[in-house]
Amino acid sequence: MTVADVRGLGSLDQTGGLTTLPVPSAPAEPRLPRARRYLMCPPEYFEVAYAINPWMDPDVAVDRTEAMRQWQELRAVYERLGHTVEVINPEPGLPDMVFAANSGTVVDGRVLGARFRAPERAAEAEHYRRWFLENGFRDVIMPACTNEAEGDFTWTGSLLLAGTGFRTDPAAHGEAQEALGVPVVSLRLVDPRYYHLDVALFVLAEAGLGRTPLVAYLPSAFSPGSREVLGRLFPDAILASEQDAACLGLNAVSDGRHVVLPTEATGLGAQVAERGFEPVFVDVGELRKSGGGPKCCTMELRS
């Protein structure tokens, strides 16, 4: 399915408004959004100055003005959906600080900070730690093990899914359980393109009121054992196509009804619409040059 096909199904607003697909049929249960609180960092100093993942090529030019426009529109989408967006000031010399999801995991007001594997990003963790302390978070723990926060930690409402294989140390999974006081399920990533869990899997609807969470993921991004675990935990999961994963379609953000995802992920958008969600497409083409999408730019502050 192309973007043109989606335009025929519903509306693809080119003027900055929300872009949604209609729900083709009533779901078994209503999809109810929940107001969220997010932390974002503007890409004031964004550039691809080094290569620490397969998406990054320092020889490819970056349009910082366009990256800022895309970031501002993403923020505006969240606000139009009724969510609160907090902003941390960017720091010179930290071009990837825009990817806020990598610098903290917050569950029930508890914060586990980050410890980056790449030295180029190491300083980001301290800036975010200070932001938490200056903004009322008192239960802030900085990790001893390498952990790239919501890049590899995904909260389902009942379990913390924890990725490893490329960035986050397996020992960080146990550290997260102790720091956050929630059960952790380890998942091994095996495809270098999907080096973080948040580019291979996302949560559409969290657990609650006796319901199990619903997720979407790319099976080939995971080891055989991890695929079995995912199949047992989430038998009704949406299985994404390689095409949608390759445009970082799984680097998406859901509030329980609205699903914010890249404009190119039209097949995935149709799949989530079939389950009663409303896809909201955003352009993140410039930010993707560093391997980032909507989720990478978005840390959730769960109180």
Keywords:
single chain, 303 residues, alpha/beta, L-arginine/glycine Amidinotransferase, Chain A, three-stranded mixed beta sheet, 7 helices, 15 strands, globular
Structure characterization notes:
One of its GO terms (molecular function) is transferase activity. It comes from Actinoalloteichus hoggarensis. With 303 residues, the protein is α/β, with parallel strands linked by helices. It is 23% helix and 18% strand. The longest helix is centred in the N-terminal third of the chain and has 17 residues. The termini are far apart.
Task: Spell out the blueprint of helices and strands.
Elements: H1 3-9, E1 37-40, H2 64-80, E2 84-87, E3 104-107, E4 110-113, H3 124-134, E5 140-141, E6 153-155, E7 160-164, H4 171-180, E8 184-188, E9 201-205, E10 214-217, H5 224-233, E11 238-239, H6 242-246, E12 253-254, E13 258-262, H7 266-274, E14 278-282, E15 299-300
Parallel strand pairs: 1-2, 4-5, 7-8, 10-11, 13-14
Antiparallel strand pairs: 1-15, 3-4, 6-7, 9-10, 12-13
What overall geometry do the principal axes of the alpha carbons give?
Answer: globular
Helix/sheet category? alpha/beta
> Reading side by side through the largest sheet, how are the strands ordered?
2-1-15
Question: How much of the sequence is in beta strands?
Answer: 15-25%
| Number of extended strands | 15
- The domain count comes to 1
**Elements, N to C (H/E):** HEHEEEHEEEHEEEHEHEEHEE
- Helical run tally: 7
Query: Termini distance?
Result: 39 Å
